[in-house]
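wait is this the right file?? whatever heres the structure
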């Protein structure tokens, strides 16, 4: 909304800046209009407050929590002979199983 109403950017420019499609930008702006949410009001709100005004099921599309990958460990292990990414991935998945409810990256 800031890019549209304060910076006077086009939907194409906003889409490029946010790395989303123009239809996504249009959808968000339409949701804001239907909710009666103006930029003057939105600028004083938190992201969570804006999201709750725009969406019925807040947080529904949040990705599941994942077990982080220690890339320093991966780099160290790959420098050893006979170690492959496949081997490290299997070790990571095995170690991740103990950290429920977090899931491993696939």
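ok assuming it is, sequence goes like this
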């Amino acid at each position: 909304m800031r890019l549209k109403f304060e910076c006077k950017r086009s939907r194409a420019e906003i889409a490029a800046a946010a790395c989303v499609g123009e239809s996504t930008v249009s959808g968000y702006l339409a949701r804001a209009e239907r909710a009666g949410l103006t930029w003057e009001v939105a600028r004083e709100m938190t992201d969570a407050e804006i999201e709750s005004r725009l969406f019925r099921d807040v947080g529904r599309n949040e990705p599941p929590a994942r077990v982080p990958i220690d890339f320093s460990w991966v780099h160290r292990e790959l420098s050893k002979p006979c170690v492959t990414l496949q081997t490290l991935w299997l070790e990571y998945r095995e170690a991740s199983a103990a950290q429920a409810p977090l899931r491993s990256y696939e």
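The CA atoms of residues 37 and 53 lie 8 Å apart. so i think its the right one actually
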